[in-house]
Design a protein that fits this description.
The complex is a heterodimer of chains A (165) and B (417).
Chain A: E1 10-14, H1 24-32, H2 40-46, E2 56-60, E3 63-67, H3 76-80, E4 86-88, E5 95-97, H4 107-111, E6 118-120, E7 126-128, H5 141-145, E8 151-155
Antiparallel strand pairs in A: 1-8, 2-3, 4-5, 6-7
Chain B: E1 3-6, H1 10-22, E2 28-32, H2 43-48, H3 64-67, E3 70-74, E4 78-82, E5 87-90, E6 95-97, E7 100-103, E8 107-109, E9 122-124, H4 128-137, E10 143-147, H5 151-162, E11 166-170, H6 183-195, E12 199-201, E13 206-211, E14 215-220, E15 225-227, E16 230-233, E17 237-239, E18 255-256, E19 268-270, E20 275-279, E21 284-286, H7 291-305, E22 318-323, E23 326-332, E24 340-347, E25 352-359, E26 362-369, H8 375-384, H9 407-414
Parallel strand pairs in B: 1-2, 1-7, 2-3, 7-19, 9-16, 10-11, 10-16, 11-12, 18-20
Antiparallel strand pairs in B: 4-5, 5-6, 8-17, 13-14, 14-15, 20-21, 22-23, 23-26, 24-25, 25-26
Classes of the chains: A alpha+beta (165), B alpha/beta (417).
The structure holds flavin-adenine dinucleotide and iron/sulfur cluster (2 copies).
Chain lengths: 165, 417
């Protein structure tokens, strides 16, 4: 019964020096979370309403980089969530939003230090964020498909990880 | 050895999770006068507005107490605490011994001594039972008066509109949500409320509640009479210190706690809306009646009750409020003050408003309406006390993000630090 102590094993980081700003990570993220699971063509040709990308690409030419949820050890979003929809999985340490319980109050957006939660206003009025592609059980789609290896996975060594307190 | 928690809401849940980080086995007893599994208090307005059902109002999953080995005593009030004998005395006379005690009795609605206030159909808006009662009278086409254009008052208004109730809001101030809003922000919200058919009477004071046994309206101090089917009072909340009033526990507005959530009485802790803990921005103890704070104070108390040595000294007010089609978020300072520079951006066309409060080159507060997506970055600039002078001109600009920060700082925060 080792609740509440789990730390996510991996984090995704970015190398802004090699990010080319192509936004392929966004495209693959959308496909990874669409009902066609990783099928780019079907996702973009058949779906009238596609999921939001759960990675944020910031850009101010020539600098650009992708950014997504860190699955923090002390997650501000979970502690702030007013409904209990945002939870850290006790086994995997991954922070996941239960979209059935989320009401789109955006308190998590206000609390997340990395600004990586999006308002999925059109689809469901819920908060949307990176789940490390946990459901499809593959290497995160953004990392796998970045053409210039500007995204990489690093094990969480609890080094340099900030605590909230 | 046991842990006893009075109250069964956010701070209590935080405490259970905090205790169980440190101690998997020692029994935990929770006492609450509300008969429910811990629910999300803000969801009462969503329940009333038929946006969620009773099953989805709960703050933790059904097996929460079982998994965490919590014994529940629900539907019974704790009457008194005997600090010398280390006992909580319940309303039915039972005495519960404690080794470590957490007082998490939360807030209670401010109820002014108004004539006619105990008539039927006058409701508070802070508990699940309140909305269960309101639900019975808030039928389509009925008329309601909400007293107090506060955060919870406006959430009540939204829910009533969703039910097809005709609503009038009364407030003594000259703008709505006066603690967070300035005139411009208030105007934006007023426009939205009017669009949804809500009538708002500002600078109006209630003289008395009209009606026989049942309320039928309100008499204002200026002589106007307003009629309605029911009334909701939402004039704010106060720390609910009733249980420990006139005891040796130190109380100001709330129970005074240190950075470890300890009160002045040994083995007694307090957390959440009932507590007055350290406010990181005001640099003194204040009440901080919001969920993120209740959770963290509760968690800190729990860990420390179980023998850890945790400090929580980063509390400050932050709130997010969707109101009809407006998204409103605010954090930290929300009023002008000495040494505070204010920067405002108002885009009327896009219906976007942003206001930043800056002191000694540090961001100390903000208010955002509609363009709120990267709000957490601003919150973190406040928490980290970052010197923003080199990028102050970029605050609030479209596309603001880590890209707007100097490379060194950006790397420090996001590129592995
Ligand atoms: C309508 C509404 C909307 C809100 N919206 C938001 C929001 O959007 N975001 C946000 O951050 N905050 C919001 N809040 C505030 C938030 O609900 C509180 O900050 C939070 O609930 C505080 O949690 P707590 O555990 O300290 O106490 P509370 O939630 O107040 O719970 C205390 C509990 O203790 C019980 N109790 C009290 N005395 C005794 C006794 N003597 N014996 C036994 N039991 C007792 C009470 O009955 C209650 O169940 C809202 C509040 C309301 C009313
Ligand atoms: S959403 Fe933000 S606060 Fe929550 S775990 Fe991810 S990075 Fe951390
Ligand atoms: S938007 Fe959803 S996940 Fe975020 S705080 Fe609100 S209810 Fe929780």
């Amino acid at each position: 019964m080792d609740n509440f102590n789990a730390a996510a094993q991996n984090r995704i980081y970015t190398k802004e020096e090699v990010c080319v700003g192509c936004r392929l990570c966004e495209i693959y993220c959308i496909a990874a979370h669409s009902e066609y699971r990783h099928d780019l063509i079907k996702t973009f040709k058949k779906l009238p309403k596609r999921p939001l990308p759960r990675i944020i690409v910031e850009e101010d030419r020539p600098v650009s980089f992708g950014l997504q949820c860190r699955h923090c050890d002390e997650p501000e979003c979970v502690k702030a969530c007013i409904t209990g929809a945002m939870q850290k999985d006790a086994k995997t340490g991954i922070v996941i939003n239960d979209t059935k319980r989320c009401i789109g109050c955006w308190t998590c957006i206000l609390a997340c230090p990395y600004g990586v939660i999006k308002r999925d206003y059109d689809n469901k009025k819920v908060a949307s964020k990176c789940d490390l592609c946990i459901e499809s059980n593959i290497e995160p789609a953004c990392v796998k498909n970045c053409p210039n290896e500007a995204l990489y996975i690093k094990p969480n060594l609890k080094v340099g990880i900030r605590s909230t307190q | 050895m046991n842990y006893v928690i009075i109250g069964n809401s956010v701070a209590a849940v935080g405490a259970v999770e905090g205790i169980r980080k440190q101690d998997k086995t020692t029994p935990i007893i929770i006492i609450s006068d509300e008969p429910y599994h811990a629910y999300s208090r803000p969801l009462i307005s969503y329940y009333l507005g038929r946006q969620v059902t009773q099953e989805s109002i709960y703050y933790r999953t059904e097996d929460f107490y079982r998994v965490n080995r919590v014994e529940l005593i629900l539907g019974i009030k704790a009457q008194q605490v005997d600090f010398d004998r280390k006992e909580v005395i319940l309303q039915d006379g039972r005495r519960i011994n404690y080794t470590k005690l957490l007082i998490a009795t939360g807030g209670k609605p401010l109820i002014p001594p108004l004539e006619g206030i105990d008539k039927q159909n006058v409701f508070n808006f802070s508990k699940f039972d309140d909305v269960k009662n309101i639900e019975k009278v808030a039928t389509e086409g009925s008329k309601a008066i909400v007293v107090g254009a506060s955060f919870s008052g406006l959430k009540a208004v939204e829910a009533l509109v969703q039910r097809g109730v005709k609503v009038t809001v009364i407030d003594i101030m000259d703008r709505i949500m006066p603690r967070v809003f300035d005139e411009a922000a208030s105007q934006m919200a007023l426009k939205t409320l009017e669009k949804y058919g809500v009538e708002i009477l500002l600078k109006s004071t209630v003289q008395k509640i009209l009606g026989d046994k049942t309320a039928c309206g309100i008499l204002l101090q200026d002589g106007r009479e307003l009629f309605c089917d029911f009334i909701i009072l939402a004039m704010g909340i106060r720390c609910n210190t009733d249980l420990v009033k006139d005891t040796k526990i130190n109380i100001n507005r709330g129970i005074i706690v240190d950075n470890k959530m300890r009160t002045n009485v040994p083995d007694v802790y307090a957390a959440g809306d009932v507590a007055e803990g350290y406010n990181f921005i005001e640099q003194r103890n204040t009440e901080i009646p919001i969920i993120p704070n209740a959770y963290k104070q509760g968690e800190t108390a729990g860990e420390n009750m179980a023998g850890a040595d945790k400090i929580f000294d980063k509390g400050f007010v932050m709130n997010s409020m969707p109101l009809f089609d407006l998204s409103i978020v605010s954090a930290g300072v929300s009023a002008p003050g000495e040494g505070i520079n204010i920067k405002t951006i108002y885009d009327q066309g896009k219906n976007i408003y942003k206001k930043f409060y800056i002191k000694n080159n540090r961001l100390v507060g903000y208010l955002l309406i509609n363009d709120i997506d990267r709000a957490g970055i601003y919150t973190d600039l406040i928490r980290r006390k970052v010197d923003i002078s080199s990028f102050e001109n970029k605050l609030g600009k479209e596309g603001f993000g880590f890209i707007s920060l100097p490379k060194e700082l950006r790397k420090h925060i996001i590129l592995e630090g």
